[in-house]
Amino acid sequence: DAKTTQPPSMDCAEGRAANLPCNHSTISGNEYVYWYRQIHSQGPQYIIHGLKNNETNEMASLIITEDRKSSTLILPHATLRDTAVYYCIAYPRIKAAGNKLTFGGGTRVLVKP
Amino acid sequence: GAVVSQHPSRVICKSGTSVKIECRSLDFQATTMFWYRQFPKKSLMLMATSNEGSKATYEQGVEKDKFLINHASLTLSTLTVTSAHPEDSSFYICSATPGTSGYNEQFFGPGTRLTVL
Q: Are A42 and B110 in contact (CB under 8 A)?
């Protein structure tokens, strides 16, 4: 799986948009960009995924650059409950033997009042 | 959405004892389950991949005789930490992939915090 690079931490203000960058310059054609988050002492929670088009769901928006080498997760109106570690992962969408989801360092996001 | 549970949520044991952690997929059948461990302020580290009815595949550096994994049914995988020692204290997380899906959907359990005294 392609390696991803994220800033180790960032702060954002409650009610403001949080923009979380991720670099994945070696992403393969069959790999999607997945975002998970982990709130303290809980299991990871799926947020969103995308291949090359921008995606939006009830939790967040995902903007992927045209060359697919980087992406940005947008939390439109951050709340205190969004404080968590956010992981960006490049991973094949189609299941195949040997696939395994591995986590990098992630970005520790602290939403401040 | 698909739900994965873990039991117990936290366990404290004495050094030298064995501890079993269960991972269940509650509303789907999981042909593949994964076990991770996480130390404080660190990322999740994959320990092993568990396939129903076959032996688990362990990541490099993970002792298979110490971390016994059994995936005897399509809804249950267990991780047994044998002869636990304080350095095994960690947060253990499982995840499961639905067998009927052709996609790499992975659903995570809430984690089990193990403390070895």
A: yes
Q: What does the block give as tokens for A10?
A: 């960032």
With residue B5 as reference, give the H or E element that holds it: strand B4-7
pLDDT-derived band of residue B51, with 50, 70 and 90 as boundaries?
Answer: confident
DSSP, res B102: S
Rounded Cα gap, residues B90 and B85, in angstroms: 11
Partners of residue B50 on adjacent β-strands: B33
Using the beta-carbon criterion (under 8 Å), do A103 and B97 form an inter-chain contact? no
Nearest to B46 among A85, A91, A100 (CB): A100
Are A95 and B113 within 8 A, CB to CB? no
From A43, A101, A102, residue closest to B109, measured CB to CB: A43
pLDDT attached to residue A1: 63
In whole angstroms, give the CA distance from residue B48 to residue A22: 26
